[in-house]
Amino acid sequence: MTPRDTSPAQGTSQKITAVTRRDIFDFLRSAEGGWWGRLEEVTFLESLYDLDALPSTDSRRPTARGDIIQHRVSNFDWEDDWVFEDARFQLLEGPDEFLLAFLARTVHPAVQADTDQSARRVDELNRLLAPDGWALRAHAFLSGRPVYTPVPENTGGPLIALPLRDDDASKLDLVLGQTYHLLDEDGEGLARDLVRSAKLTLRRDGGIFHPMPNDNWTADTYEAVITADRALVPEFTTAVTDVIWQRLATVLKRLEREDVQSLVVEAALRPFPGITQDWRHQDTDPLTPTNQARRERKSNEGYPTADDLVFASRAELAVYHVLQELQRERPTQNGMAILPLASAKLRDAGVRSPDFTVLGNGRAVIIEVDGPHHYGRTRKADDEDRDRHWARCGIHTIRIAHEHTSDPASVKERLREDLTRTLFPPR
Fold this sequence. Notes:
Layout: H1 18-30, H2 41-46, H3 64-74, H4 96-106, H5 115-129, E1 134-142, E2 145-152, H6 169-185, H7 189-196, E3 199-204, E4 222-228, H8 238-254, E5 260-267, E6 305-306, E7 309-310, H9 314-329, E8 336-340, E9 344-346, E10 350-352, E11 356-360, E12 363-370, H10 377-392, E13 396-401, H11 408-422
Parallel strand pairs: 4-5, 12-13
Antiparallel strand pairs: 1-2, 3-4, 6-7, 8-11, 9-10, 11-12
Helix pairs in contact: 1-5, 6-7, 6-8, 7-8, 9-11
């Protein structure tokens, strides 16, 4: 059914309560500009209703079209909000579809010229509609401006009772869970997976950031803090963090925590090791990684593993799987070995643990997977110095950007070419 069908159809819903409807009408009354925007009222309504099929309330006019012209153009004796409680248009007591289509029309680019004002109106309408399970979402663009359509909101899952206090650990975990599901629905797989193992807290920003005009900062401003395993922190790039914050901010706003205005990601503190009184006489745990992954903790503390090997990040694990494929493609009599995070003592550079050392054909090559932290000027210089030390040993270094590991096929072609040139050159 569409609102232009002037009689209610079977199967239409009425989940939006009278309380919500009257709140919406109050908001539209106070909003800048009339509900009809830059259109004439008849033009606005005829896109939603068959005005020539609806009856008139004035004996001088046969249809609703003439009725509106008589009282809003000729006499101008109806108030601007006349349509909200006119039973013919079914906005107050009719099926949800009538009201939702009407609201979507009020923010259509043909009606509302100011895109920013339209977005602010959508935000407020969504806040009012949310308890009844509806929202307006952009589904297309007209001349670069969003066109909104009503969609049912997923209101399943545990409710989070208000108020949401700073120290409500269990409620904050539900907030993170709702953020997780929003990311999942939007296809943000990497951000979703990172959120799964994280912890959310709220804290005052402590005045660290100096307020600027119009930035909404106050002495009571909060920041959301996601605490993640130290090995995963490099995965929280600026782009990923922004994606998470967009969904998290939506949840917090609905829970009336608009004072939370930013998101930071921090590494979890490493737990102190458990010891006993005779710790001086205990043997070293034979299961503790030494040369392999000497910088990383045991696998049950968050680092990705495969084949009883430990990796510093999921990006390195992705490269390892690509190297395994290339390894299987090598002939048995001319294979190669893969050494993740194998430590080595260099003459003037101390102990180094490259991400991968690959051996084959009596040769060796180093592979480094560069995370976002490698792009700073200082770190880049350190990397060049590290590569120079390996070059003095006659070993070439291959560097792979962290973000490229999301495309294993491309990484595989790159490594096949580089390993063939360095380890297995044609004779």
